[in-house]
């Protein structure tokens, strides 16, 4: 941090890039739900990963303590982030690496492009990375005349298909192997025309295609899963070995990493290396873990760069209720257990970060104010499966509700005309904040009974309630409420029953022993 | 014990039979039930939809209503509403900066139990057939609602109680821990996704061959029952309190989804 600190810091700014919803979630979800093949692929894949995760998690008697440790370490990191970042920078630089600070996607992209150009090349190989997806690095490099080749198999599939990832761990989860075969036949140069959809044959085709790139590339671009402040070490956790190739063969290695990925010390890896593989792929251990600390004489890349990316993270950190979303280690367990994600897939969220974590992270990074982003926190039934699965115990349902509150308040603040939902909520608040008023409202129950007719069910409602009757009936209301029955049977109700403003008369009730 | 019933707004207005079944169970065990008249709603619809400001008077009313009565415990036939009372009420008060209300809400919350918690943990019910005379000779499948399962950690309390009902045949439900898709205003704001979740839930229910789907939350059961009814399914949705309250002399009879209960509590 070479800049001199001048005066009061301004409020942290929101991020930009591929982390902003591009249309309202309900509309996007409706379109994706119409794709039967997608739903079949997703249902099969998420169920498989879910079951694997449950099995390997059950093997660890101290799983809950590990989650607690992961959560506590991350809380500590967030509380000391400026100090840890400077410690990391000092160690990374001392070992021959170069740090570049990027406030947002534009700064990060420009930095990477300049570093690539310095090497006089127009091609880079890439390790799968969420941070570079987030900032739209591939698209930016393409505009600058630099070709970026994804080397993770699933990222390669998505890139060849000119598609977008729909899952943070399994970016091509929405494709089945027949679709993959068709993409390879159509897009992969020099592919065997007799290629079948046998997974081994597909992997072999990709391997042949990629090997040429690994051996010729001068520059690699990666993300990082962890950065260790006490040693200046970076870590990439992967399954295929493509990452190891990219991290060791090219002369220049450029890593782009969000500032929240720091861990204080080497020993903290012990916790996260147990949490991450089990939560993400459902494996006890991932096949390849690469760690590097600056430049090593005679081994690996000669030029080692790290772009430290803010892009809205400081803004998220400033949100007391939402900041724990930055604890995320991108394992994707939350999306694999989410009943909404399982049915809509990742594209419906319009962001690099889909699923439950995306529904909170995207608006935390880029702001709740836009119409499209504001629909994301509602993309959940609040069933809580994500919170249970999260290895670092991010209370996603609570943050979803917090962001819904931000959304409602932000619309209130704009002096907009109240929506149908606003009006319904205000009326309900009035009726439901007094037993007497609810009792009066319940006197209208026989009207509902009348509306239900001889079928004793209501099959069509107007306005926002029409969403209910599109697939569900409503039972005919009862002839009398419980409250009315109780009064009739028991003569009187206990308590006073007046609404707000009535003096309580008694202090807080302590029950009889 | 003197037990204050929190009927919950949906049961009070739409499923009074569930509250009456709850009263019946508790009285059979020899306890006194009171109904604090000021009660209305827990306010979770407002909280979960982001209307914190509108939730405050609802929460304040609930706290006041349950301070106006003397009791040993509060019971509600809903995991979701109890989770709201326990976890959301103090949070809503904190958010609006009312430390007094926060402490009062926490005091009410600490004495509030979901029905199966009260029956199993406090009142020591281990055999519904023997202790309550529960009799329900039907094939039943059970859906554990998310908030009971994940916020209250009810575990198998409701199922244990059902298992000991005389004559019952419990059929296991596939993908039992999956949400039914209700989610309060989620069901109208994201009606398509909610309907897709519901379709999978009702398909799993139908494939059990049960004539009744039961659970501990009338809101989820209204959702599931509403879906079954729309699909023309003969499967009925009943709260587990209604099954526990059913006896040989006064049986609850499944009558097909969403229709009004024709046994105890009908008119």
Q: Taking Cα atoms only, what radius of gyration of chain A do you get, to the nearest Å? A: 27 Å
Provide the CATH superfamily of the domain at 25-314 in chain A. Answer: NagB/RpiA/CoA transferase-like
Percent in strands of chain A: 5-15%
What coarse outline of chain B follows from CA principal-axis ratios?
globular
Q: If you consult CATH, what is the topology of the domain at 25-314 in chain A? A: Rossmann fold
Produce the secondary structure layout.
The complex is a heterodimer of chains A (513) and B (267).
Chain A lengths: L24 H9 L2 H23 L4 H17 L1 H14 L3 E5 L2 H14 L4 E4 L3 H5 L2 H7 L3 E4 L2 H8 L16 H11 L11 H18 L2 E4 L3 E3 L4 E6 L3 H7 L3 E7 L3 E2 L5 H12 L7 E5 L10 E7 L3 H5 L15 H5 L1 H6 L10 H12 L18 H5 L6 H18 L6 H12 L3 H8 L2 H8 L4 E2 L7 H4 L4 E2 L6 H9 L23
Parallel strand pairs in A: 1-10, 2-3, 2-4, 4-7, 5-8, 7-10
Antiparallel strand pairs in A: 5-6, 6-9, 11-12
Helix pairs in contact in A: 3-12, 9-10, 16-18
Chain B lengths: L1 E4 L3 H5 L2 H13 L3 E3 L9 H5 L3 H16 L5 E4 L2 H17 L3 H12 L1 E3 H8 L5 H5 L6 E4 L3 H6 L5 H7 L5 E3 L14 H4 L1 H16 L5 E4 L2 H13 L5 E4 H6 L22
Parallel strand pairs in B: 1-2, 1-3, 3-4, 5-6, 5-7, 7-8
Structure at a glance:
The complex is a heterodimer of chains A (about 525) and B (about 270). With about 525 residues, chain A is α/β, with parallel strands linked by helices. Chain A has a 6-stranded parallel β-sheet, with helices on both faces.
Write structural notes for this entry.
Chain A has about 525 residues and is α/β, with parallel strands linked by helices. Among the domains of chain A are: about 25-315, NagB/RpiA/CoA transferase-like (Rossmann fold, 3-Layer(aba) Sandwich); about 435-490, no CATH class. Helix content of chain A is about 45%, strand content about 10%. Chain A contains 23 helices and twelve strands. In chain A, a hairpin with a 4-residue loop joins strand 5 (about 225-230) and strand 6 (about 235-240). The relative contact order of chain A is 0.13. With about 270 residues, chain B is an alpha/beta fold. Chain B folds into two domains: about 1-120, Rossmann fold (3-Layer(aba) Sandwich); about 125-245, 3-Layer(aba) Sandwich (Rossmann fold), CATH 3.40.50. Chain B has helices at about 10-15, 15-30, 45-50, 50-65, 80-95, 100-110, 115-120, 130, 145-150, 155-165, 185-190, 190-205, 220-230, 240-245, and strands at about 1-5, 30-35, 75, 110-115, 140, 170, 210-215, 235-240. In chain B, the strands form two sheets. In chain B, strands 2-1-3-4 form a four-stranded parallel beta sheet, with helices on both faces. A four-stranded parallel beta sheet of chain B has the order 6-5-7-8, sandwiched between helices. In chain B, strand 7 (about 210-215), helix 13 (about 220-230) and strand 8 (about 235-240) form a beta-alpha-beta unit. In chain B, about 65% of the residues are buried. The model of chain B is unreliable at about 255-265 (pLDDT under 50). The interface between A and B is large, with 90 and 88 residues. Chain B: One of its GO terms (molecular function) is oxidoreductase activity. Chain B: This is Glycolate oxidase.
């Amino acid at each position: 941090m070479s800049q001199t600190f001048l005066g009061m810091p301004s409020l942290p700014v929101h991020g930009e890039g591929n982390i902003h919803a591009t249309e309202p979630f309900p509309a996007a979800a409706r379109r994706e739900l119409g794709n039967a093949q997608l739903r079949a692929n997703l249902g099969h894949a998420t169920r498989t990963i879910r079951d694997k995760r449950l099995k390997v998690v059950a093997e660890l008697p101290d799983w809950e303590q590990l989650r607690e440790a992961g959560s506590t370490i991350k809380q500590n990191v967030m509380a000391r982030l400026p100090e840890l970042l400077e410690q990391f920078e000092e160690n990374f630089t001392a070992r021959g690496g170069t740090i570049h600070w990027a406030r947002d996607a534009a700064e990060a992209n420009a930095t990477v492009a300049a570093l690539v150009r310095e090497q006089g090349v127009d091609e880079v190989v890439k390790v799968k990375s969420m941070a570079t997806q987030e900032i739209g690095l591939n698209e930016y490099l393409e505009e600058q005349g630099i070709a970026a080749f994804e080397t993770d198999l699933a990222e390669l599939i998505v890139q060849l298909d000119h598609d977008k990832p729909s899952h943070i761990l399994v970016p091509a989860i929405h494709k089945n192997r027949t679709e993959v075969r068709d993409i390879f036949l159509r897009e992969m140069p020099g592919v065997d025309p007799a290629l079948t959809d046998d997974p081994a044959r597909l992997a072999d085709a990709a391997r042949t295609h990629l090997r040429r790139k690994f051996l010729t590339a001068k520059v690699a671009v990666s993300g990082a899963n962890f950065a260790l402040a006490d040693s200046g070490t970076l870590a990439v956790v992967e399954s295929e070995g493509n990452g190891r190739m990219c991290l060791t063969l090219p002369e220049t290695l450029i890593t782009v990493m969000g500032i929240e990925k720091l861990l204080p010390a080497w020993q903290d890896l012990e916790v996260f290396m147990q949490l991450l593989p089990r939560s993400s792929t459902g494996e006890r251990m991932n096949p390849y873990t690469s760690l590097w600390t600056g430049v090593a004489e005679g081994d690996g890349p000669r030029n080692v760069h790290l772009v430290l990316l803010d892009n809205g993270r400081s803004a998220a950190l400033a949100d007391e209720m939402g900041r724990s979303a930055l604890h995320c280690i991108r394992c994707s367990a939350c999306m694999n257990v989410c009943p909404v994600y399982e049915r809509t897939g990742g594209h419906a969220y319009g962001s690099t970060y889909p699923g439950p974590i995306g529904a909170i992270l995207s608006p935390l990074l880029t702001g709740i104010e836009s119409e499209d982003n504001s629909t994301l926190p509602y993309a959940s039934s609040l069933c809580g499966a994500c919170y249970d699965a999260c290895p670092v115990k991010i209370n996603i349902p609570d943050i979803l509700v917090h962001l819904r509150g931000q959304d409602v308040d932000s619309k209130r603040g704009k002096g907009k005309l109240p929506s149908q939902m606003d009006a319904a909520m205000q009326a309900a608040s009035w009726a439901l904040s007094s037993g007497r008023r609810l009792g009066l409202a319940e006197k209208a129950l026989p009207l509902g009974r009348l509306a239900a007719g001889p079928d004793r069910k209501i099959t069509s409602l107007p306005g926002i309630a029409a969403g209910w009757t599109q697939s569900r009936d409503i039972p005919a209301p009862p002839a009398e409420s419980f409250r009315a029955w109780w009064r009739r049977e028991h003569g009187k109700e206990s308590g006073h029953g007046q609404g707000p403003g009535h003096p309580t008369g008694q202090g807080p009730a302590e029950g009889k022993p | 014990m003197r037990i204050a019933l929190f009927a919950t707004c949906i049961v009070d207005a739409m499923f009074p039979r569930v509250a009456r079944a709850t009263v019946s169970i508790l009285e059979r065990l020899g306890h006194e039930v009171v109904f604090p008249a000021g009660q209305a709603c827990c306010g979770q619809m407002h909280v979960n939809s982001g209307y914190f400001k509108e939730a405050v008077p609802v929460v304040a009313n609930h706290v006041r209503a349950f301070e106006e009565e003397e009791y040993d415990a509060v019971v509600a036939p809903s995991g979701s509403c109890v989770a709201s009372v326990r976890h959301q009420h103090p949070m809503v008060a904190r958010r609006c900066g009312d430390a007094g209300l926060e402490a009062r809400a926490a005091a009410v919350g600490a004495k509030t139990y979901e029905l199966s918690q009260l029956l199993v943990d406090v009142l020591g019910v281990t055999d519904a057939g023997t202790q309550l005379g529960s009799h329900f000779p039907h094939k039943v499948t059970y859906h554990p609602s998310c908030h009971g399962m994940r916020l209250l950690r009810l575990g198998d309390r409701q199922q244990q109680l059902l298992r000991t009902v005389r004559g019952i045949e419990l059929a296991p439900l596939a993908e039992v821990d999956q949400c039914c898709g209700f989610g309060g205003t989620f069901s109208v704001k994201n009606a398509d996704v909610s309907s897709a979740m519901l379709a999978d839930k009702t398909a799993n229910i139908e494939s059990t061959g049960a004539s009744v789907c039961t659970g501990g939350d009338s809101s989820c059961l209204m959702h599931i029952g509403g879906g079954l009814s729309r699909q023309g399914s003969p499967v009925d949705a009943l709260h587990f309190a209604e099954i526990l309250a059913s006896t040989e002399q006064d049986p609850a009879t499944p009558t097909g989804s969403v229709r009004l209960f024709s046994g105890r509590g009908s008119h």
